[in-house]
Design brief:
Elements lengths: L8 H17 L2 H16 L9 H24 L12 E3 L14 H8 L3 H12 L4 H8 L3 H18 L8 H14 L6 H4 L2 E10 L11 E2 L1 H15 L9 E6 L2 E8 L3 E10 L2 E8 L14
Helix pairs in contact: 1-2, 1-3, 2-3, 3-6, 4-7, 5-7, 6-7
Length: 296
């Protein structure tokens, strides 16, 4: 009788490692590359000497991310327009893992962008992934007291920048997303205004590769009139939206759409007290390559 092959510990930690890398980098594709490199290093390691595979693998992934962030930060300085993270897309109303998207809302990812790489690592490892400071110190090669200070500074920034989370019922979210999509494609702004908060914020990321708003827009009048103006200008083209798929994006209700039959975009809506507080639109094609639209 033969015994079943032992499960590779890496497999049981892959989801955790991918989540860590994504929150460090804000990129699904880069996170997958980092995890693949971690697997190669794990395969070549002396596993008998590794007492805690999770901590060992987190150390590899964190250090790889810190190395990549050095070049990513310099590239980010020349990024055209607003930067948004690559969207994490999940089913709306389907069976979603309890931890999916909940600790990577877009507002948090934007707040993390304003931290130093070491602050970001210390905060994520301790506050999100519950690693003790002794292990964090070994991971980022700093003293425990320094790691505590890094996490504290990061926490203060995140508290300032991060609004409280709101849970949205999937059925109600689908209804709201449908209404927003219809209102956002009309030349009359009144229907859209009925859905927006007075101080709504609008962020659009085209990366300089497709049309997008360079700077964020704030306020119900500016945002609603922007959408209405775009629709009025494009009405003569008579190209319908050929894809509309309600989804969750980083835990927020939203949708994928093929606008005017040409440009794919991911739209996330931060809904609070029945109104849209923030709109996040990713149009940069490089950030949408990982999306599977085969079942859309």
């Amino acid at each position: 009788m033969t015994s079943a092959p032992a499960t590779d510990p890496f497999d049981s930690h892959r989801r955790f490692l991918t989540r860590l890398a994504y929150r460090m980098l804000g990129s699904v594709s880069d996170a997958e590359d980092i995890v693949q490199e971690a697997w190669l290093r794990w395969r070549e390691s002396e596993r008998a000497e590794i007492a805690q595979p999770r901590a060992f693998l987190a150390r590899i992934v964190t250090r790889l991310c810190l190395d990549q962030m050095k070049s990513a930060r310099s590239r980010r300085e020349f990024y055209v327009g607003s930067w948004l993270p690559e969207p994490l897309v999940e089913a709306l109303g389907g069976e979603v893992p309890a931890d999916a998207g909940l600790d990577a809302p877009i507002a948090l990812m934007l707040a993390l962008e304003r931290l130093s790489p070491l602050e970001r690592a210390a905060f994520l490892l301790h506050d999100i992934f519950e690693m003790d400071f002794a292990e964090i110190a070994r991971t980022i090669d700093r003293s425990e007291s320094a790691c505590r200070q890094l996490a504290k500074r990061a926490r203060e920034h995140v508290r300032i920048d991060m609004p409280p989370r709101n849970k949205v019922d999937p059925v109600e979210a689908k209804r709201f997303v449908d209404a927003f999509f219809k209102a956002a494609h009309k030349a009359d702004p009144s229907d859209l205004q009925a859905l927006l908060a007075q101080d709504v914020a609008f962020h659009s990321d085209g990366g300089g590769k497709v049309l997008a708003v360079i700077n964020p827009l704030y306020g119900i009048d500016r945002v609603s009139r922007f959408f209405a103006g775009i629709n009025a200008k494009l009405a003569h083209r008579n190209k319908p939206t050929t894809l509309f798929k309600p989804v969750l994006i980083n835990g927020l209700p939203g949708y994928l759409s093929l606008e005017r039959g040409e440009t794919l975009q991911a739209t996330a809506l931060d809904i609070r007290d029945g109104r849209v507080q923030a709109i996040y639109i990713v149009r940069n094609p490089d950030k949408l390559r990982h999306l599977d639209l085969s079942d859309a």
